[in-house]
Task: inverse folding
């Protein structure tokens, strides 16, 4: 007999409340959970949960490589968990003794696009307890712009933690963000806001998702978003369309610079370089639309905004998000009802182990010498710097990697260099649900359960105060397959094997959760008795800065950054032409005349799930979106296979017509490699001839000088009809 179990889906940052149907030990379905603050809808990826759990290609046992690195077949040999854990512990301990714990890099898939959100804080604790300041999750591509770069303006993550209060906003601004793909809970809340009369502004090269409902869709040229933000700010300043009281009291605009200027004068001067007519030439957004959007942002306050990786995969990403932060500061809507609000969190004990890593070890982070304000300052290693450390020993040699789920070679540019970097390591252990091109480079592979075979504690669902007040203990819906273990269990087992059990409650996960929950007053027994979650009676406190100031050195919103000035960067937000564009590289543009950007598919979580039948049916082949006029000029028809070529090589994709694109812009997809056996759909080699791996032909540089963010969403290419097979 089938039973219905309240749960939530952790496959992405939306973490939608769900109802699972379970019968005879099998997961049959996942559907919405009415009443849960993120339970209004379930996306197609969540609905595919039963297929993910039951897929025949799941990893079920620990595996050890028996063939040399680079061999066509790794020669996987099944081993037991005790041997696997002992091997990891002995290899990592030996490397740490010889080269220091910093020579061991830890990594994971992004918690925004995978179930690592269940575990990532504990993995961070393990890394710090071990003594390594190096974590690789490609944060420079996903998270830098909305979480860490914004600290230099606001002192806190805006909009990464100060989330849009969509229930009360009068205008919603989405910039490089399509929540229909990336965060369904935001999409449903935005649709509700539009129904009650809120306005919507979307900045995106593609008219995708909610952009079709926008009052203003600004079709910006990829990588020129900072020029657009500075132009909007200029119009607001020129017309007095800004919150003068907030700007004067709570930003450093009024502070003197030198002997005769104020910060405000310099801001006005910088933004005046981009009047709408000039910005139109740079960005492609019509001048009159820039003015109309600036007026809308003034007249339809409060304004709530959000950004995503559309702004983070550029060579000018840091100054772009600072320019948008400056624009948002002028609205005066921060931490106000209907603006971007830090909702009151459930009180907990911190578990990420920050106190376990000494300042001396933190200072050894790979890349911090070259980019002292970038991700390495916060213990995140960029892909570019990790590859250099593994291959070239700079600033020292990365010798080992402990990786959970991250398909590193497919998720970043220069995929072949990434493969070579992994092969150069002395030891690499990878944990995952399925084998993938990254796991193929490992010495040991550990099998992880799916999210629905694991218990997990979720404290706060972020999207609203009701969501942030909710605590839910997700119960295992079905038994683990084979010898697979939850990621969290593996982290605790590794900690014990490494002699770090004292920092991990001697391997007792329940004791760890009890410690984490203690300030909340909640118990595991209460949570298990309420699988739908418990909502605490928390209230939002608005405008907290009025009591404590902003968490910047000055206590103000720092539109002018002294930290940037001290390190040789422009202290005000500026626009720099993308590093690979028709303007910056006219020498390349003659051979590669099209601007190449990329976007995630609705049907897959990054590089995962193309083997899942129900998902692959909806998106059977890799595609490149192209304007019909551009295709016609090249003799390409809709559905034709094309060769997409960049200075790094070429990959395959099928042409998909999109008349909403600018004719000189094409849009590809990353992540294609898996076959779908039940459908007879092929896989594609991640490297070499016949590849459909877009990141194989995208470069990691020239990257953002501050963050190391790579120009994956703004580069150059040419497309041509592919010859018959």
Result:
């Amino acid at each position: 007999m089938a039973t219905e179990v309240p749960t939530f889906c952790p496959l992405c940052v939306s973490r939608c409340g769900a109802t699972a149907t379970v019968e005879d030990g099998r997961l049959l379905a996942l559907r919405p959970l009415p009443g849960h603050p993120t339970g209004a809808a379930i996306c197609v990826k969540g609905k595919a949960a039963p297929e993910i759990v039951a897929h025949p290609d799941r990893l079920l046992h620990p595996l050890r490589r028996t063939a040399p690195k680079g061999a066509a077949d790794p020669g996987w040999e099944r081993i037991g968990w005790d041997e696997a854990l002992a091997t990891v512990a002995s290899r990592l301990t030996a490397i740490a003794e010889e080269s220091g714990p910093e020579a061991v890099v830890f990594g994971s898939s992004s918690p925004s696009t995978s179930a690592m959100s269940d575990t990532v804080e504990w993995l961070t604790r393990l890394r710090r307890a071990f003594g390594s300041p190096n974590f690789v999750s490609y944060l420079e591509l996903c998270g830098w712009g909305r979480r860490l770069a914004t600290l230099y303006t606001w002192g806190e993550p805006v909009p990464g933690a100060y989330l849009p209060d969509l229930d009360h906003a009068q205008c919603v601004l989405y910039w490089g963000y399509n929540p229909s793909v990336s965060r369904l809970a935001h999409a449903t809340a935005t649709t509700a806001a539009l129904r009650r009369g809120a306005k919507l502004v979307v900045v995106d090269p593609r008219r995708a998702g909610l952009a079709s409902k926008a009052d203003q869709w600004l079709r910006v040229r990829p990588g020129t978003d900072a020029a657009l933000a500075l132009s909007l700010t200029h119009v607001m300043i020129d017309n007095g369309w800004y919150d003068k009281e907030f700007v004067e009291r709570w930003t450093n605009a009024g502070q003197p610079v030198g002997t005769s200027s104020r910060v405000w004068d310099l801001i006005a001067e910088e933004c005046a370089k981009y009047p709408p007519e000039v910005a139109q030439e740079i960005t492609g957004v019509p001048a009159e639309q820039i003015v109309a959007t600036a007026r809308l942002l003034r007249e339809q306050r409060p304004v709530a905004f959000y950004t995503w990786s559309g702004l983070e995969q550029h060579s000018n990403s840091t100054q772009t998000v600072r320019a948008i932060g400056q624009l948002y500061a002028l609205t005066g809507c921060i931490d106000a009802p209907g603006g971007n609000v830090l909702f009151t969190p459930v009180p907990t004990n911190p578990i990420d182990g920050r106190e376990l890593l000494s300042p001396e070890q933190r200072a050894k982070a790979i890349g911090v010498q070259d980019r002292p304000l970038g991700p390495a300052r916060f213990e995140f290693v960029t892909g570019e710097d990790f590859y250099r450390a593994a291959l070239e020993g700079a600033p020292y040699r990365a010798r080992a990697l402990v990786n959970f789920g991250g398909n590193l070679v497919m998720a970043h540019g220069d995929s072949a260099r990434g493969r070579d970097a992994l092969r150069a390591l002395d030891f690499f252990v990878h944990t995952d649900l399925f084998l993938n091109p990254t796991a193929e480079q490992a010495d040991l592979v550990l099998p992880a359960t799916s999210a629905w075979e694991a218990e997990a504690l979720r404290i706060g669902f972020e999207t609203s105060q009701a969501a942030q007040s909710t605590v839910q203990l997700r119960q295992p819906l079905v038994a683990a397959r084979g010898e697979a273990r939850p990621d969290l269990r593996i982290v605790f087992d590794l900690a014990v094997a490494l002699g770090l059990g004292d920092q991990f409650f001697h391997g007792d996960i329940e004791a760890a959760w009890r410690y984490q929950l203690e300030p909340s007053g909640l118990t595991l027994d209460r949570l298990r008795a309420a699988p739908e979650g418990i909502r605490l009676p928390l209230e939002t406190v608005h405008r907290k800065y009025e009591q404590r100031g902003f968490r910047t050195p000055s206590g103000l919103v720092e539109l002018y950054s002294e930290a940037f000035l001290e390190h040789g960067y422009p202290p005000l937000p500026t626009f720099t032409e993308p590093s690979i564009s028709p303007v910056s590289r006219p020498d390349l543009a003659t051979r590669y005349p099209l601007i190449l950007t990329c976007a995630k598919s609705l049907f897959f979580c990054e590089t995962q799930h193309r083997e899942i039948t129900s998902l692959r049916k909806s998106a059977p082949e890799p595609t490149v979106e192209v304007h019909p006029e551009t295709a016609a000029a090249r003799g390409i028809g809709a559905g034709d296979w094309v060769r997409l070529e960049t200075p790094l090589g070429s990959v395959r994709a099928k042409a998909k017509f999109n008349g909403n694109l600018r004719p000189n812009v094409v849009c590809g997809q990353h992540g294609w490699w898996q076959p779908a056996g039940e459908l007879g759909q092929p896989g594609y080699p991640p490297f070499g001839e016949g590849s459909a791996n877009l990141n194989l032909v995208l470069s990691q540089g020239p990257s953002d000088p501050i963050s190391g963010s790579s120009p994956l969403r703004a580069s150059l290419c040419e497309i041509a009809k592919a010859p018959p097979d």
User: Anything to note?
Assistant: Residues 81-99 form the longest helix (19 residues).
